[in-house]
Amino acid sequence: MSTASLDRRPPARTPRPTAEPHADAGTGVRAEGLVVHRGGERALDGATCWLPAGAVTALVGGNGSGKSTLLEALAGLAPAAAGTIAGLPAARALVVQRTDAGDRLPLTGRQAVAMGLWGERGMLGRLGAAGRRRVEEALAQVGAEHLADRQLSAMSGGQRQRVLVAQGLVQRAPLLLLDEPGSAADDASRDRIDDALAAAAAEGAVVVVATHDRRSLARADRAVLLDHGLVVAEGAPEAVAAAQAARAAAALAPAAAEAQRGGAVEARTTSSGA
């Protein structure tokens, strides 16, 4: 299946003046013909897409389309049976969807965010002043300063989600991957998360976010539409959203036509007195 080319240049953004720059991610990441198996099925079936540095790319598509698998492949957690990924930086941060098990851990918001620095300092390493500053800045980016001393188990779904996003942001990785970061959040929380992702992209990171949220899609710089493990459209968010709507309408058309035919048959049967 051919891929629709719908590219546009991402709008310029002004970096946050207090933030340290991300490591150089080059010009971006390119997946080419990516095949990943999951449970005996092809979760990705020759996916090809471009994920530029300095931009937020939204991954969209229905459940089972391959969004999460693509994120895991980019993170190095799902080995590819075929295809290549070019431009991958050594440092990558993955923010997965929240689980209830994590909520029960006896952690404060600050401690949860500090876990994002384990890769640099180890579990028992001291944060130091610079590390503590990074933790506080990450919390501030998502508007979660007031959650620093609160237990995760006492937070709402949206609050926990913001803390998890802060855990990803604190790593300042050149590749930031997020799986439905606003799934449990209200509109205000999703806006804060989107703002934080835009700031990370403005600093040069490759930011890739799987989302079902139309508002987050509209705020992205680029979008990639997946369907049954294939990339079927990529480019400007509004064009990809239109392509997604057209595919959904085409998929529903046979069922609608069948229902219409059934209604006509019922009407004829009723009028004939049968």
From TrEMBL:
Record-stated family: Belongs to the ABC transporter superfamily.
Residue span, ABC transporter domain: 29-253
Protein name per the record: ABC transporter domain-containing protein
Region (Disordered): 1-30
SMART domains named among the record's database cross-references: AAA
Biased composition annotated in UniProt, kind: Basic and acidic residues: 1-10
Top-level taxonomic group: Bacteria
SUPFAM superfamilies: P-loop containing nucleoside triphosphate hydrolases (SSF52540)
Keywords: ATP-binding, Nucleotide-binding, Transport
Organism from which the protein derives: Agrococcus terreus
A Pfam family per the record: ABC_tran
